[in-house]
Amino acid sequence: MIKLFRRCLIRPWHISMLVLFVSGFTRPAVSQQAAGIPAPRQILGYELGDRYTSYAELEHYLLAMQQAAPARMKLIPYGETIEHRKLYLVVISDSANIRRLDEIKGNVIKLTDPRKTTKKDAQAIIAATPMIAWLSYNVHGNEASCSEAALNVIYQLLGANDTATSSILRNLVVIIDPLLNPDGRERYVNFERTHSGTSPNEDRNAAEHHEDWPWGRTNHYLFDLNRDWAWLTQPESRARIRAYREWMPQVHVDFHEMSYNSSYFFFPPYKPVNKNIPASTGEWDKIFGKANAEAFDAKGWSYWSGEAFDLFYPGYGDSWPSLHGAIGMTYEQAGQSGVRVRRTDEAILTLKDRIEHHSTTSIATLRTASENRMKILDQFYTFYSDALEAGRAGKVKAYIIDPRKDPSTADKMVRLLLDQGIEVQQPHEIITVSGLHSYFSKETETKTFPSGVYVIRTDQPSERFLTALMEQNPVLSDTFFYDISTWTLPLAYGVETYWTESSLSFPMSPVTVMMHGGNTIAGGKASYAYLMKWNTNDAPRALVWLLQHNYRVNVAMREFTLNDQKFGRGTLIIPVAGNPSDLERDINDLVQKSRISVYAANSGFTQSGIDLGSDRAVRLKKPSVVVITSPPVNPECYGEIWAMFDMMYGINFVPMKLDQLRSADLHDYTAIIFPDDNSDGRGYRNQIDSSMVQKLKTWIAGGGTYIGIEGGAAFASASVGKIAGVKIKEEKKEEAKKDTTKGKLSEEELEKRMTVEEKERKHRMDEFPGTILHVKLDTSHPLGFGYNSDIAVFKENNTLYELSDHGYNAGIFTATPRMSGYLSKENERKVEGTPYLIHEQLGSGNIILFTDDPNFRLFWDGLNKLFLNSVLLMPSIRNVTLTSEGR
Description:
The longest helix is centred in the middle third of the chain and has 21 residues, at 351-371. By secondary structure, the protein is α+β, with helices and mostly antiparallel strands. It contains 27 helices and 33 strands. Mean pLDDT is 92; it is low at 1-28, 734-741 and 883-887. Strand 8 (340-342) and strand 9 form a beta hairpin.
C-alpha cells in the first residue's frame, strides 16, 4: 500500500488539514473588460464550473479566443496525443511583444549560453526583453479543475483592460498549456458525465466521486506524465520538451489537485530538494509563496506549504524546469471529485471554488513575475554561467558512453540526452583515457575507445541537469521521498558508461543527429543460415518481426564459434531451408533499419561448440501473449507492458480481463503475464478461486508460461496463490520479552514503546523507496541470454522471497547490493542473497517470477531483454538442463 499511496499522490494526513472554502464564485471576474472579448459563457453556452468542459469544447474555446484577440494571443499546436488530440500552447502578451516573439525567443536562448553571450550583452538583453512565464495545467487527467482554471485565466488576461493586467502583458510573455494530458482528462470527463445526473450529487459516496479503473490520471498508455519529463517515453512528453526548449521560460508552474479534504498547497516545497538546483531558486519559491499567501489571505482562504511535495526527482513538472534555469513550482488544489462534493468536515467543495483558487494563484504568480522581471532574468543568466563554472571546477569532467556491447540502447540513451538539450561529442580517432570510474566498480582503470564512442563534457550550460541524470548517487538529505530515491541513467539503460576526473582535450565533433542502422550482413548472402547476435535491444524487435511474419527461427542454447567469430548463448539461427524465399531481402531490410549484428553462414558445421542443427538450437514459437488487465491490476504496470509491446517491439498481444480467465480457452496462448496488483498478490487472490488456480496450473503443465511481476509474482508464490513452490520470506520475530542476559528489549517490545515520531521514522526506514540494487544473473539460463552476469535493477517494494528449492534462482541480489539511492542498513541486510528472478518448471511449462518491475516507467531499458527473454524465448524451452555441450 505504501507504493500505491506514493503513486496516487494523496497523503492520509491531508484529511487533518480540514478547512472551509468560500463558495461565492459565480463567474470569472474581469475588471474594465476589453471590448470584443467574449466571456466563457458566450462561447461554451454555460458558466465555467457548471460542468466539466470536454476536449472538443476546450478546443472550440481556444480557437474562438484567438479569433477574438489575434493581436494579443497566438494559438500554437505543438504535438498530438496517442488518441490524436492536438496539444496547444496559448501565448498571450501585449501586441508589441506578440509582433516580436521570434526576437524575444532568440534573446532568451542567448541567455542560456554564457560561452557566447557576455555579461554585458546579457544585461542589454535583460533590459529590453520581457520575461517568459509558462503555466501548465492538467498533467493528471482526473485533476480536472486545472484546465477549467486555464480557460478562466486566458479570459482574465485577454478580457481585462486594467493597469495591472496591462503591466503583466507588457513585462511578460505568458505561455499557457491548458491541457497537458487530453486523453486522460477526456477519460475522466466521460466518466463524470456518464455517472452524473441533472444535478451534481454532493454525497461523497456517490459514484461520480469514485472513478472506474484505470482512472483518468494517466495518458492513453496509462503513464503518469508528471514522472516522464526526464525520460520522454511518451509522445506528449517529447512534444512538450521540444516546445519548452524553444521558449526556455524563467517561471514555470505545474497545476494539480489533491484530496478534496485538503485545502491548497503552493511552494516552498518539502525536502529533499535536488542538490543540483541552486539555493537561489528556493529563495524565489518563498517570494512567490508569500505573494500567493497574500492573495489567499485577502479572501480568507486556507492554504499550506512546505509540508509535502518535494523537489528531488528530476522528472516532475517543477524539478525539471528548476534544473533548466526556471523557478519551477507546483500548486495543488483540493479536488479530484465531481462538480460538488461534501467533505468530511461537512463543507461543500465546488468546481467553481477550485477554478477560482487556481485562477487566483495563476494571476498572483504572473503579477509577482512581472514585478521582478529583470531580477529573474538576471538570475536565469546566472544559473547558466554558474553551471558552466561548476562543470569546469567539479570533480567529474566528462562521461564516456561505449556503445559496442549494446549499440541500439546506447544510441537511444544518447538520443535522449540530445533531446534534452545536452551536448554530446565524438572523438575523431581512437582515444585512451586513464582514471576511468565504472558504475559497477570502485576501481579506476585505463581504457582505449574507438572513435565511435560518445563523450559528454560537464563544462556545458546543461551541467546541472546532466549531473542530475548521470550521477551515481543523488545527494541525499533525507530518508523520506515523495517519489523515488534514485534513477541513475547509465544503470537504468544498462549501457557501458564511465566518468573521469580528467579534462579531455581530444579533437571532437558535436553529435547533432543520431544515425539509424545502415549495417550490412557480414559475409553477404547465406546459403545455410543467418546468425543474429542477441546483444542489443534491436535483436528482440527483429525476432518479433520474423516470427510474426512466419519465419522459422532457432535460438542457440550454447555458445559456438564459426569463421573465427564467437557467438554466445541466445544467438538466433535463421535457416535458409524451410523459410520463405524473401528471407535474404527481409534480413537485409532489418539490418539496414537497426543496430543488429547479422552474419552469413554457409555451413552448419562450426569450429567449436554446438553445430547449427544441434538439438541445443531450439525452434521458437510465434508469440501469442495474454496480459491481464482490469482490477486489481496496477494500471501503470500494465501500461508499461502495453506501451513496450505496442510502441517499442511490435508484439501483438491479447489484453484479457481477469474474470475472462474463467471461461477463456487458453490452449493457444504461449504466455500469460500477470502485472503487479499493488497488493502483494492479495488483490489477485481475492478474485481468483481454487478452480481458476487449477486451470492456470493445468495450462502451465501443458506448456504455457506464467510470467508474474511484483504482485503477480507474489500471487503465484506458495505463500499466496500456490501456483509455484517458492515462498515469500517471512520476517522472523524476536522473542517479545526482555533479554535477561543483556538487559535489552526485543525489537517488537521496543516498537510498542515508540512515540508517534519514532514510529514514523521507523516506517520510513522499513521502506524500499525506489533504490538501485546489484543482481548476479545466471547467464547460462535462457532468461540471462544477452547479458553479463552483473545487472542493475530497481526495487520499490518490500516483498522478499526465499530461494527456490527446486527451480532456478536466475537472478540473486548480491551481498551489500545497494548501488544508488537510499536503503537502510537493515533492509540491505534483509535483501542480500534473496532472489530477484525465479524460474520454476511445472510439467512442460514455466513459471517466471520478477520480484520487482523490470519495466519501471519504461525508461529502465537495461532490462528489456531480460523481460522479453521470458516472453519470447521461454515458452519454447521445455527443459533448460540440456547438459550435452557439443564438441
